[in-house]
Amino acid sequence: MAKIIRPEKWLPSDGIVLEENADATVKIQNNILVVAGPGAGKTELLAQKAGYLLQTNSCNDPQKILAISFKKDAAENLKQRVQKRCGSEFGNRFSSMTYDAFAKSLLDRFRYALPEELRPNADYVIEDETIIDCAFRKAGYFNPKNYYPGKLRDLYDFKISSTEIPFCKAGLGEDVWPLLLKGFDNHPACLTFKMICILAEYIIRTNTKIRRALLYTYSHVFLDEFQDTTDLQYKLVKTCFENSSSSITAVGDNKQRIMIWAGASETVFEDFQSEFSASKTQLIMNHRSAPRLVELQKQMYVSLQENRVEIQTSDKWDSKDGEINLFIADTEAAEADIIAEGIKAKDICILCKQTPDRYTGKIIEKLNEFGIKARVETEYQDLIKEPIVILLINLMRLAIKRKSPTEWEVINGSLLSIYKISDIDTPDEYDKKQEELINILNKCNDAMGKIGNVEELRGLVNDIVLFWGIPDLKSAYPAYIQGDYFDNKIKRFVELLWEEYEQCQDDWINVLENFMGLYSVPIMTIHKSKGLEYEAVYFVGLEDGAFWNFKNQPMEDRCAFFVALSRAKQFMSFTYCEVRESLRYPRQSYSEINEFFELLTTSGVAEVIRLS
DNA sequence: CCCTTTAAGCTTTTT
DNA sequence: GCTTAAAGGG
User: Fold this and answer.
1) Which residue is nearest to nucleotide C1 (CA to C1')?
2) Gap from A174 CA to B10 C1', Å
3) d(Cα A493, Cα A275) in Å, to the nearest integer?
4) What is the structure's pLDDT at A142?
């Protein structure tokens, strides 16, 4: 039994020192909104708060803390950090999940609390575009031919998610919802994530007993990346926890509000403060960036409509540390030269506003001449997060290098989670599976030594997939049930891995590590870089063409610029290129986004360098 | 078959 | 607002 600490005796774990407002946030019992800028240590704050609540029993055993994030990896990271800070006995009372997982768990557990007409079939599938399209056609409210395909999807989404339940107003949703809830014409029931959120909210709204049980389970709630919360998500949170004794800690940064175009609520900070009587506090440390970079970030506060706050930097820096450059190039060759020249440090990232492929062709080419690999991460990042790809990679690594403890951990962990077998509870089945594992590893090792073409690689990958068994994989990872999602992931994995194999030949460890991106400079969009940090960041294409939507969404684009800038620890460079020969209309301009140039030229901390 | 016109996509996650 | 792909016209 882990020891309970008296609140006044509690200290942050692992020697972490919390700034004043963070310390106050950890100890406050009321609802609070924490505005935490880049590098403020959001994850650490939440992990320490979890530690405080659990170790002092302020979160009264057996009550739990619920942490809600947007992305799986964010939820996972937070869980890991809490486990690390306060151990697994307390950590098990910390539930970290995504909004969708939270809503779905409510729906799946309390499906029978819904009235018959709103209750989806138990075997519903999720987000199947074909079924949704058929449902709308069948409901026949309008002629889909009058809409363009892209607009049609938006329309479906709008109609489905603006439907209020119980059905009261006559709208299109009323006719489509029943089809999707129950299935039709041999189609299974199909829900969208938004429908799941709406149904979960309705369950809580109409069942006081379930709500009470939820409130009893979770005495404390953490909301991460709060600035990205959509109206539906906020409504769910509100129905669950408004006017309750559960205490909510919402953490976010209005300066990094770059998801409005995807439906994030613009007023969620104010709404939360007034509707949950939440106080507001602000963190003033930036543990990430060097002083010159923080100075430039502060100079953006005016245009970001933020009060000027004296952000403090880490004392590991000298006040002159940090370097910011704006490179103005005539040609992409000159731009590529300066970037390839500068890329010596290891921890580097190249960012673009959008479509990185269009902006970085020449740079990749030049870096290759220097013997440095660089690649656009979009597809790789998706793939390497895919559970089946993680299993494949780890098993292939084990086949080559039998004594790799981390890989064994992944594989054995997956045997446990996929088949629910372990050496303690079900030793016979465990031994049998271990034997099969050794067989496939031998077979794999043998095959990997003599792969000659992409077909043979495909065959090998299929054998490994069959070792786990497709039905078992599908029941462990429900996302793989639908359509050809699973097959497509495998297909792309094989194709991209083959590309690496062609370059490294028989050095399989190298092939796999290259695939994981261990030795290449990542190139990505600003949106993908959110939450990440690098020693040096190059933002390529500070141009009107890249910020084509600036007129319509200046605030969001300013935030995007701010997000890019705040990824860098020490070196930040921007490039502008007069002629981009790889684009159809090569001539670039910067009059529309002149304010960014103005900022850099007048900041006193950035250098403008003309390349000729 | 080639040239012109039209319109979607661009920045995203989630079981 | 630019890029790309597909549809449309001669």
Assistant:
1) A548
2) 33
3) 47
4) 64
Q: Which nucleotide is nearest to A355 (CA to C1')?
A: B10
Helix (H) or strand (E) holding A469: none
Give the pLDDT confidence score for residue A133 in this predicted structure.
85
The set of strand C positions with any atom below 7 Å of a protein CB reads 1-4
- The whole-number mean pLDDT for each consecutive block of 10 residues of chain A, a chain of 612 residues, reads 86 91 96 97 96 94 96 95 92 96 97 95 90 86 66 83 80 82 94 96 97 97 97 97 96 96 95 97 96 97 91 95 96 93 81 96 93 93 93 94 88 84 79 88 90 92 92 89 86 92 86 93 96 96 96 96 97 96 91 96 96 84
Question: How many angstroms separate the CA of A197 from the C1' of C4?
Answer: 36
Q: For A371 and B1, how far is CA from C1' in angstroms?
A: 45
From the Cβ of A492, is strand B under 7 Å away?
A: no
Torsion of CA A46, A48, A50, A55, to 10 degrees: -170
- For strands A279-282 and A64-69, give the pairing: unpaired
Question: How many residues would you count in chain A?
Answer: 612
- Strand B within 7 A of A77 CB: no
User: What is the nearest nucleotide to A71, using C1' and CA?
Assistant: B13
User: CA A397, C1' C8: Å apart?
Assistant: 54
Beta-strand relationship, A534-540 and A348-352: parallel
Cα–Cα nearest to A225, from A199, A253, A204, A244? A253
Full 3-state SS string of A245-313? CCEEEEEECHHHCCCHHHCECCCHHHHHHHHCCCEEEECCEECCCCHHHHHHHHHCCCCCCCCCCCCEE
Distance A57 CA to C5 C1' (A): 61
**Placement of tokens 């981390």 in the chain:** A406
Q: Report the pLDDT value the prediction gives residue A426, as an integer from 0 to 100.
A: 78
Residue nearest to nucleotide C3 (CA to C1'): A584
Cβ–Cβ under 8 Å, residues A293 and A574: no
ω into A166 cis (within 30 of 0): yes
pLDDT of residue A575: 97
The separation between CA A476 and the C-alpha centre of its own chain, rounded to angstroms, equals 21
Q: Provide the pLDDT for residue A416.
A: 81
CA distances for A343 relative to A336, A372, A578, angstroms: 11, 9, 22
CA-to-C1' span, A529 to B12 (A) = 12
Q: Give CA separation, A520 vs A365, A367, A369, A373, A377, in Å.
A: 13, 10, 13, 5, 10
CB atoms within 10 A of CB A150: 8
